[in-house]
Write a structure and sequence with these properties.
Rossmann fold; six-stranded parallel sheet; two-stranded parallel sheet; binds NADP nicotinamide-adenine-dinucleotide phosphate; EC 1.1.1.133; oxidoreductase; NAD(P)-bd_dom_sf; dTDP_dehydrorham_reduct; dTDP-4-dehydrorhamnose reductase
Length: 287
């Protein structure tokens, strides 16, 4: 039986990875209290003790706006963490699957970002995640896959879908930016993609993962409302499109961060259109 350690196992993706572990895999999920990936000694000890054949890192500092005022905390989890994991993976011969973000790009393109496109993060979170990618690539002797994703949501944890449902119940209307374009990604798609890349011995390198299709945050919110109302019969507040300039946030975000998944899908098969897994998550949340 193949033993795989999942770090950050208490987060949205971590929970889903443990839940969707394939038959024949013994999964050891370690949440932040069980393993702080920013602690190099603890990381090496954990991997020496468990001797996994692969490590999937789902742990990260993900508070994009708060990172602007907490750069050290972001760097510790997002840059130092992957560096320790890569070193421990190299030392024990484990494969490392490390998850990164579309926010390593500046959003200046108008066609989907390729894995090899130039990176230029706009904020502290993106810069810390890019430093984590670089630390993994720079580690001698590590067999690693870096899998970038974006706009991640699930039925558990904190995310845009749950925030929208709450606001649509509390407010007379919900204003959502319509000029940032990307693709929602369900943790189901992301977890299945990671397990499949591992199972099919995908070559080491950088991959992109999201569901299929494209949306603005406004489109995403509109679909959340439409699917939730259809599923529950509940009347929810309408959604109004606004410009990023009308919704200032501490962190700048890329205006366009659609990812090109061609190389990933050649191995895993195409992901569903983002509305399909969204429907399943909404059903779980509102029924
Ligand atoms: N969420 C998104 O929209 C999004 C977009 C692009 C990429 N990603 C990437 O996707 C991956 C999974 O994100 P997610 O959505 O599952 O995020 P999440 O729900 O915030 O989960 C991240 C988990 O990592 C844990 N963590 C934080 N610092 C840690 C440390 N030092 N050691 C061990 N664990 C630590 C967190 O624990 P605490 O809660 O206790 O802090 C949390 O359980 C991350 O690499 C993230 O950067 C996410």
């Amino acid at each position: 039986m193949r033993r795989v350690v999942v770090t950050g196992a208490g987060g949205q993706l971590g929970v889903e990875l443990v839940r969707r572990a394939p038959v024949g895999v013994e999964v050891i999920g370690l949440d932040r209290t069980a393993l702080d990936i920013g602690d190099g000694v603890a990381v090496h000890r954990a991997m020496r003790d468990t001797r996994p054949s692969a490590i999937i890192n789902a742990g990260a500092y993900t508070a994009v706006d708060r990172a602007e005022s907490e750069p050290d905390a972001a760097h510790r989890a997002n840059a130092e963490g992957p560096r320790h994991l890569a070193a421990a993976a190299a030392a024990t011969g484990a494969r490392l699957l490390h998850v990164s973000t579309d926010f390593v790009f500046d959003g200046g393109k108008s066609s989907p970002y390729l894995p090899e496109d130039d990176t230029a993060p706009l904020g502290v979170y993106g810069a810390s995640k890019l430093a984590g990618e670089q630390a993994v690539r720079d580690t001698a002797g590590v067999d690693a896959l870096i899998v970038r994703t974006g706009w991640v949501y699930s039925a558990h944890g904190q995310n845009f879908v749950k925030t929208m449902l709450r606001l649509m119940r509390e407010r007379p209307e919900v204003r959502v930016v319509a000029d940032q374009i990307g693709t929602p990604t369900s943790t189901a798609t992301l977890a299945d993609t990671l397990w499949t890349l591992l199972d099919r011995d995908a070559p080491s390198g950088t991959y992109h993962c999201s569901d299929a299709g494209v949306a603005s945050w406004y489109d995403f919110a509109y679909a959340i409302r439409e699917l939730a109302q259809a599923s529950s019969g509940e009347q929810l507040a309408p959604v109004r499109p606004i410009a990023t300039a009308d919704y200032p946030t501490p962190a700048r975000r890329p205006a366009y961060s659609v990812l090109d998944k061609t190389t990933t899908w050649a191995i895993t098969g195409m992901a569903p259109h983002w509305r399909e897994p969204l429907r399943a998550v909404i059903d779980e949340l509102v029924r």
